[in-house]
Amino acid sequence: RETIKKKATAQGKFKKQSGGRGQYGDCHLRLEPLPRGEKFKFLDEIVGGVIPGKFIPAVEKGVVETMEKGVLAGYPVVDVQVAVYDGSYHSVDSSEMAFKVAASMAFKKAFLEANPVILEPIYNIEVRVPDEYMGDVMGDISSRRGKIMGMDSDGRFQVINAQVPLAELYRYSTTLRSITQGRGIHKRSFSHYEEVPSDIAQKIIEQAKKEKEEES
Question: What positions does the domain Translation elongation factor EFG/EF2 occupy (predicted)?
């Protein structure tokens, strides 16, 4: 997922003249972060008909389609409030398509100004291991950017509760078996989304850029 950390505004203006009827759409958007899990809110703050009401759904559609595709690395954008608060139109050349394109342009511009970040899924894991493997298992969890949340003992077994990014849990069962000689077991469940550390985010963005260039 992708999201933002601060407020930003931008204008998107789409103007095209190619013989006969042209295309014209112009809108100003304000983006603000929402609390985690709120997904998306769209506000129409247009006054005085600077954008006719019939084009507002096209503005929202342009925003939603851009959010689905992502801006930084192709992941869906979440937890953002978008307000359309200003703009202009042309009585002949304006169309829904033109406003959709203008909204997409404005959203991308504002998004990049709004301190954008990538979010990754964090999982709760419960690991049950014999006492003697406890140190090695905890060391392995830490090396996976995991946070130890608590520990319990159950006879000769230790139960470790931790939160680990899903990206770091690849082949975890195999590693756990090898560390504990087949005696460690774990279960996992989704917890929440959290900001990816900036160095890792940069790698994700560069990789996405590279893949996009290869496609085109």
Answer: 1-115
